[in-house]
Each structure stands twice: as C-alpha cells, then as structure tokens.
Amino acid sequence: MSVDEPADPRATQPPIARSGEFLEAILDNLPLMVFVKEAEELRYVRLNPAGQRLTGLDRREIVGKTDFDIFPPDIAAFFREKDRRTLEEGTVVDIPEEQVQTHDGRRWLHTLKVPIPGPDGRPSYLLGISLDITETRNAQTETRRAKEAAEGSNRELEAFAYSVSHDLRAPLRSIAGFSQALLEDEDDRLSDRGKDYLARVRAAAQRMTGLIDDLLELSRVGRAELRHAHVDLGAIAREIIDELRAADPSRDVVTVVEGDLLVHGDPTLFTVMLRNLLDNAWKYSSKRSRAHIEVRGTRVADQLVLTVHDDGAGFDTALAGRLFSPFHRLHSATEFPGDGIGLATVRRVVHRHGGRVSAEGSPDGGATFTVHLPIAGSSS
Amino acid sequence: MNPNTILLVEDNPDDELLTLRAFERGGIANPIVVVRDGIEALDYLFARGAFAGRTAGAPLLVLLDLKLPRLGGLEVLRAVRADPVCGTVLVLVLTSSRDDSDIARAYELGANGYVQKPVEFDDFVRVTRAIGTYWLMTNVPPQVGP
Ligand SMILES: Nc1ncnc2c1ncn2[C@@H]1O[C@H](COP(=O)(O)OP(=O)(O)OP(=O)(O)O)[C@@H](O)[C@H]1O
Ligand SMILES: [Mg+2]
Q: Which of A160, A182, B4, B96 has its CA 20 to 30 A from that of B89?
C-alpha cells in the first residue's frame, strides 16, 4: 500500500471494518450451508460453497430457481411451507429436523430460517442456515435401536426364565409328592435302602425347589418396576438379623448395625439385597463359636457406602469377581449349602439403583461386601 | 347337590391326585367334584352341557387353577362373577404361579383368596388344612343361588 493514498478509507481502517469482504469470507468458509431467497417468489439468490458441497448443486445453476424446480415435490413443499411461515410470522423459525435431496441421497438438516426486512420493513429476503445432522442422527438412531433391542431381549429372557421356573414346579410337585406318598403308603414293603433312595429323591426335589425360587427372585428383581421411597437400610437389616436369630437360636453372633443408612430407592429390592448379604454373613460364619456381623453406612459425597462384614470362612479376594455371577460358588455344598444365586441378585438390585458392589475377603479371615448407592436414587 | 361340595378345577392329573390326597390328609371330608378345564368348570357352575341335569345349587368352594386348557382360570373367574346366580360363590385360586400380575388380576376379578401350590407335600397338607379351618369351617359363606 502506498503512503500517498491516505485518503482511501480502506487503507486506514482495519480489514474487519470492510464488512462486505468480511461477510463474503465468512460465508465462503463457514462449514454450514447458507442460502438466500427473495421473499416474493422464493427464488434462490445465493448459496454458499458449503451449501454447494452439501447438495451437489452449482450456485450459478440455482439462482433464479425455486425449490420446486430443484427438489422432489415432497421436499420442495416442506421447504415452501416453512418459508411461508417465516415470512408471515416475521420471526426466526427453527426446524430441528428436515430432509434435503442431495447428490448422494437424502440427508438430514437442522435449519434456521430468518426473514430479512427490506426498506419498507416487510421481509424482502429469506436467509437460511443449515447444519448437516445426518451422521449424528444416524448414530443416535443406531444407539437407540441397539438399546431397545438389548432391553427387549433382556425382558424376553426374564419372561422366559420366569415361565420356565413356573413350569418346572409342576413336575417337581409330582416328584416330591409321590415319593412321599410311596414312603407313607408302602412303608412296610420298602427296604431300608429303598427308603433311603426315596428320601434322596425328596431331598433333591426340595433343593431344586429352592433353586427355582432363587431363580424366580433373580428374574423378578430384573423385571420389577422400581418404586421410589426413602428407605432405612438399618431398620431392614435389624429386622433380618432378628429373623436369622429366631430361626437359629443356638448361634452366638454379635451384631452391629450403625451409621448413616438412609437412602432412596425400592424398599422391596433393598430388602432382597440385605437379606442375601446377611444370609451369607450368617451362613459363612456358622463355624465360628462366636461370630461377628457388622453392617455400617457412611455418606461419601452423594453416595451411601454400605458395608456388610462377617468374620467367617471368607474367600480369596482374587476370586471375588466371579461371586456375583449366577451359580458361581467358592465353597462346596457339603461345607456350606447354597445355590450361588444370592449375590447375582444383590448385584442386580444394586445396578438397578445405579450403584456398584464389590467383595473382599481372605480364607478363614472373613468377608466384607461393599455397596455404593446414589443417595438420591436413580431412575433406571 | 350336596351344598358342601368343593369344585376342583385342575387339568394336571398328578396335581389332582395330590390335591385329593392332601385334602384327605388335611381331614377335609367334603364331597369333591373335579373338572379339567375352564369350559367344564363353567358348565358345572351354570348346570349346563355335560352337567345340564345336575341338581341346582352352587358349590361351597371353588378351587381354581389359572393355567387351564380351553378357557383359563381368570376367564372362568370373570364369567362366574358376572353371573347373577352364582356370582358370589367362594373362589380360591390354587395355582403354581406367583406372578404379581396374576395375583393382582385374580383379586381384581374378585377372587376370595390366592394360594400357591406348595411343592413339598407336607406344606400342601398344611395349606389344605388351613383352607379347611378357615374357608370351610370359620368363614360364613354367602347365600348363593335362588
Ligand atoms: N459372607 C461370605 N463369606 C464367605 N464367602 C461368601 C460370603 N458370601 C458369599 N460367599 C461366597 O460367594 C458364593 C456366592 O454367594 P451367593 O450368595 O451368590 O450364593 P450361595 O450363598 O452359595 O447360595 P444362595 O443362592 O442360596 O445364596 C458363595 O457360594 C460363597 O462361596
Ligand atoms: Mg447366599
């Protein structure tokens, strides 16, 4: 630039003030489609490069044309309707989703249409700004579909487990009922060995009944509609401990329930959770002449941290991860009876409330189960 | 018809035998009529079809399974409750299912009670004994029929 041309205002002003060029630069480089139509007959006046790339149309080609000259009738009609609304209402119209025909098929746009007033105050142009949301939209649809499919098959599986468990009860009733009938009616004709066999049949039927009931509970915990209430886990724990004591009065167990144990969630499911944890603590500490069981709660930020501890048989922490899967057991049935479903049910209750659960132990050194629950509850 | 009759609606022959045995063990001596599906149950209650000739009167108690061929237990219950003559007969649902929605539906449709068939026979006897002492002896049944 030359020094003897100081009169040129463009030379002394910063480039940003040269609004025409500035705007052109923005329009040309903006990654959004920008178009302008005149308000009278809604013919295109301009289309920026991003718009050309998106639609595959040439800006020179479309100037002077209407949407009906360019797009399939359904799309053109949709655009026209929004244009009319924008001009009539004289305000910005937000169109969160609309389709446009492009050189590679239909794509989804989020569009704003803005009326631009002329000298008389009435709109003389219509400005459109569009963002291509096809990818985001597809991804969302994909996620939603995957989630629905997963939920659907989960529900199906739960329902299946449920009906199977029911149907299994009927034959079990026959097995248990008729083996007992045989023991009663044919007592004098059965050898001792025969009676022993029948007793085993009955015991097996009983075990299987327990198994089915546990499976039913597991499936119910997965399917049940979550209720929301303020729940005092301490009160529930004390009740369960009283029941355990009443059922097994010969045991010497020192119990402690203390701390902040108030939480928000489903009272029935929390009862199921505590019953399984305390059942275990009671059961796996049964070989101690005097056992200790402790239930404690503390608040950490927005979480309730609940621990259920016992000083019983324990387990190797390295194996703890598998405990929460159905049918996984770390003790033999002769050592401690059980089906291996209790902790799977616990985990399900905890997950449904948006929490997590972990286990720690050492062989013969007792076990501690730690549950983190959002105090405010969760909506899952 | 003996007014102390119990109508047992049960399609599984094993369950029928076990129920009858449990009743015997539970000391219940009422006459028991067994029907094997929902249609037969309604035929009996409405004295029609195969039971067209039976003397009038509703049974003292209906023990109703839910999973039945032809017409399910809940439909039977609905039809019974809609009937002006035997609409008030005592109905106890006696079934394998403990589905919460089954229980809710049964009470909605007017069941007087809901009992899950126990697997263990001794429990079954206990249940029938309880039915006997409460529903057959303690409870004063409605006056049913014309
Ligand atoms: N408090 C505990 N101390 C030691 N081991 C435990 C304790 N709680 C659970 N376990 C181990 O974890 C396994 C799984 O526990 P879970 O409650 O799922 O099943 P279970 O107690 O065997 O049977 P059930 O389904 O009747 O509860 C148990 O078999 C046991 O080996
Ligand atoms: Mg357990």
A: B96
